[in-house]
Specification:
Blueprint: H1 4-14, E1 18-21, E2 23-24, H2 29-32, H3 39-49, H4 55-66, E3 71-80, E4 87-96, H5 103-109, E5 111-112, E6 140-143, E7 150-157, E8 160-167, E9 191-202, H6 206-216, E10 225-230, E11 233-239
Parallel strand pairs: 2-5, 3-10
Antiparallel strand pairs: 1-8, 3-4, 4-9, 6-7, 6-9, 7-8, 10-11
Length: 273
């Protein structure tokens, strides 16, 4: 179920926003047959390629790192399931404090598979960004300088995917991350991805989720902190600390036969390190 914030943003840009059909760029022959046909079928093909659990978070984390973000937050909202009352995820807001979207970033987001021309960046809103559709039918993205945020809403017209872009209402998305402390002023310019669940799914095991997020941060140069909130309460706070490397000096053994240090040569002295 979509939150009121999600609906407020979509409604705000519904009348004054500009429409554009999502384009397909640079696809291999495997996908090319779908270029001018069903975009829904094309996205299903993309999702099959990224079928691993948590792929949407891995891609969003990598894109955050490409945007020079140091912090990412995953805000999970749950509700009671109609079957047995177990908690299910009704919406996720993923956001990062990286560089706000520029005009060219918005343009890439509405072009499937174009990606980033910067060879040093991985992904940067190419095919991988469309893993959002693995959990959400119509994602909503908000980004921009504080007080000047733009919003892009995805929506379907039959089997064709369209976007509507416009000015985001003030103060709806970029509320304080410490959601239990509404008196805290949040001055961060967040880039936010609002993802109401297409089909509510079980809340992931937080221990396993933490392991997955930690592993995903292994190769992120900029991203150092991931926070996970469940129903406004902080549940995970993962910090990455890079320790400066230094050489460890080890004493050498006086001979192959003595155990007074590291052995660096063979017994005959023919091979040495």
């Amino acid at each position: 179920m979509a939150s009121s914030a999600y609906l407020d943003v979509r409604n705000a840009i519904a009348d004054e926003g500009s429409d554009a059909r999502v384009e397909v760029k640079s696809l291999s022959n495997t996908y090319a047959i779908l270029r001018n046909n069903s975009q829904r079928a094309l996205i299903d093909k993309i999702l099959a390629r990224y079928a691993s659990a948590g792929a949407v978070y891995r891609e969003l984390l990598q894109n955050s790192n490409d945007a020079d973000a140091t912090t990412a937050e995953i805000l999970i909202t749950t509700s009671a399931s109609s079957e047995g009352g177990k908690e299910v995820v009704s919406q996720v807001i993923y956001r990062n404090n990286g560089l706000p979207f520029r005009t060219q970033d918005w343009a890439r987001l509405r072009k499937i598979a174009e990606g980033n021309p910067d060879a040093s960046k991985v992904g940067a809103f190419g095919v991988g960004a469309y893993t959002m559709f693995s959990i959400c039918e119509e994602p909503l993205v908000v980004s921009g300088k504080k007080g000047e945020e733009e919003a892009m809403a995805f929506f379907w017209k039959g089997d064709s995917l369209w976007t509507k872009t416009g000015k985001a209402p003030d103060g709806i998305i970029n509320m304080s991350a410490t959601l239990n402390h509404s008196n805290v002023q949040d001055n961060t310019a967040w880039t936010s991805f609002m993802l109401p669940s297409r089909d509510p799914y079980p809340l992931p095991d937080l221990v396993e989720f933490a392991k997955f997020l930690t592993a995903s941060m292994t190769f992120t140069q900029c991203l150092k902190n991931i926070r996970v909130y469940v129903n406004s309460t902080l549940q995970l706070n993962i910090q990455k600390t890079i320790i400066e490397s230094h050489t460890i000096e080890t004493p050498k053994a006086s001979s192959f036969w003595r155990n007074d240090g590291a052995v660096t040569s063979s017994s005959s002295g023919m091979f040495t390190l």
